[in-house]
Write a structure and sequence with these properties.
By secondary structure, this protein is of the alpha+beta class. The protein has nine helices and 15 strands. Strand 1 and strand 2 form a beta hairpin.
Length: 393
């Protein structure tokens, strides 16, 4: 709990063991003995020191985890509201013998038990754990939606709320540009985020935006660097597994990061370029030569390289499950049940209000017309019969 343990930017997670500098910042050596003697209970700060800064900055990676959660208002998160429930990370992410409960992407989360206590010995992760499978006491219809719609889909309506941006695009193919004095080019967007950097290429950011929705069983499929890829389209680096009708599949919100990455067009595999290092090592961030960096990187990992490189479009999916909004901000029916609604591109299911079937529409209109003819005919017949009776009398 000393606050002195900080990762060094180029040390793969290690701190500075001796005084080192990077980017104009000096990192003093960490006294590991002192750190170990001051280990204490977790807090939002200790968890967030890593998880809020995934991807290299505040909120960069996930979009639903950032420093706003250290002391959030109810509008940001109803569970962690500092003046309300005031939950900490470990209220839900219970820990036993360093085994931290959480959503593991290799198998589905535990959503079978309901209203468990904090000492629940199972993996406490699903919303149903506390809220049960029928949380909407006033609406059986909404409870029925729970069979195919995740709680997060309705109760986390936007990503990057509260003015914190998250990264949604990264184009490596545009890296390596310099100004007329051969100095780095660094551009920023209207919100102050770096939109172009010579070392990284074009970067795209967003805040307070609508998630993308996909069927999800809780399991991710991953593309490994040694897997062949299809370069005629977009390569999913990871992809939520599931389709309508699959066991446990629900509509789930995601942040999708899209970009362009270097690959070998001959072997149809991603390239692991060398980025860090001295000029003689071939590192891209000192030579700014992709060919040299590709050869050096692939040699270090001992993978085959044809000597050719290009860039391919990629995308990765990040489930959105934190920053639950107040119930007043939950989505209403028309948000999804509309032709241009949030689920306009969701495949595999007939959605009332969004979809149309010519046959069903034709049958429906025929029934409406026949019903109208019947009503008009019935009324006309009654009028004629009544008039006839009056004439006889």
């Amino acid at each position: 709990m000393t606050g002195t343990y900080k990762k060094f930017p180029t040390a793969c997670g290690h701190p500075a063991y001796e005084e080192k500098s990077f980017g104009g910042t000096t990192f003093p050596p960490v006294d590991l003995t002192d750190v170990a003697r001051n280990v204490g209970k977790t807090s939002r700060q200790t968890c967030g020191a890593c998880h809020f800064f995934g991807g290299g900055g505040d909120g960069v990676k996930h979009g639903d985890l950032n420093t706003l959660l250290i002391e959030p208002e109810k509008a940001i998160d109803v569970h962690m509201d500092a003046d309300g429930l005031n939950y900490t990370c470990t209220t839900c992410h219970k820990t036993s013998d360093h085994d931290i409960a959480g959503r593991y992407y290799s198998f589905p989360a535990q959503n079978t038990h309901e209203r468990s206590m904090p000492c629940d010995e199972d993996n406490r992760i699903g919303c149903e754990t506390c809220h049960g499978s029928a949380p909407h006491k006033e609406s059986a219809t909404l409870n029925d939606h729970g069979a195919t719609v995740s709680c997060q889909a309705c109760h986390i309506p936007m990503i990057g709320r509260g003015g914190k941006s998250t990264l949604v695009g990264w184009d490596w193919s545009s890296a390596g540009q310099f100004d007329d004095n051969h100095q780095f080019i660094v551009k920023k967007d209207d919100t102050g985020n770096v939109s172009y950097h010579t070392k990284k290429g074009d970067l795209t950011w967003n805040q307070s935006f609508v998630p993308e929705y996909h069927w999800y069983t809780g399991v991710m499929d991953y593309h490994c660097p040694t897997d062949p890829l299809d370069d005629t389209g977009v390569v999913p680096l990871n992809k939520p597994r599931g389709a309508y009708g699959d066991d446990g599949a629900k509509i789930f919100p995601f942040k999708v990061l899209r970009g362009k990455q270097i690959y070998d067009p001959e072997t149809k595999k991603l390239i692991v370029p060398k980025l860090f290092g001295a000029k003689e090592t071939g590192a891209y961030w000192t030579n700014f030569d992709w060919d040299t960096a590709a050869r050096a990187g692939m040699a270090e990992v001992d993978w085959s390289f044809s000597g050719k490189f290009d860039f391919v479009s990629t995308e990765s999916y990040w489930p959105v499950t934190h920053m639950v909004a107040p119930k007043e901000e939950a989505l209403n029916c028309s948000a999804c049940h509309a032709r241009d609604g949030r689920l306009a591109s969701l495949a595999g299911v007939y959605l009332p209000g969004r979809d149309a079937s010519p046959l069903i529409d034709t049958i429906g209109w025929v029934l409406v017309i026949l019903s109208l003819i019947g009503v008009v005919g019935h009324g006309a017949l009654r009028i004629l019969l009544t008039s006839a009776k009056r004439g006889k009398s």
